[in-house]
Amino acid sequence: MTDHTRMIHGSRPNRSSGPRMGFVITSMTPATQMTGPRTGAMLVRGVDRYGHFEPETVRPAADFDPAGLAAHEEAMRPFSQAIYQGAETSERRAKTTDATR
User: Fold this and answer.
1) How far apart are CA 26 and CA 38, in angstroms?
2) Which in 49, 54, 96, 101 has the greatest CB count within 10 A?
3) Any domain includes 4
């Protein structure tokens, strides 16, 4: 089974006084080609002979490191575009509206 970024998932309400945290890791080979905007990735093993992703090389020096936060914001921009690609079309809005009725 293959999971998809837009797969619906959920959990029980957070009834604690603390914030809910999420952590997602997506593992794929360098040969993988994403549809939509070019996104970043960090090579954790081997050699990338394909160049399908923007290399993410900045490692934060500490929690809330300004350089690390800036790198994260830059890396998330194309990822957000990829997730929401097509969301502005009337066809997608109609499907969303129908599904929420």
Assistant:
1) 15
2) 54
3) no
Strand partners, 55: 41
Task: Tell me phi and psi for residue 82, to 5 degrees.
Answer: -65, -40
> Cα–Cα distance between 40 and 75 in angstroms, integer?
6
- Judge whether 8 lies within some domain: no
- Domain residue limits at 86: 40-99
**pTM exceeding the 0.85 threshold for the entire prediction:** no
DSSP summary character for residue 15? -
The total domain count for the chain is 1
Return the structure tokens found at 72: 């994260």
Q: Is residue 57 part of a domain?
A: yes
CA 22/CA 42 separation, integer angstroms:
19
| Contact yes or no for 4/24 (Cβ under 8 A) | no
Q: Helix, strand, coil: what percent of the chain each, to 5? A: 30, 5, 65
**Does residue 35 fall inside a structural domain?**
no
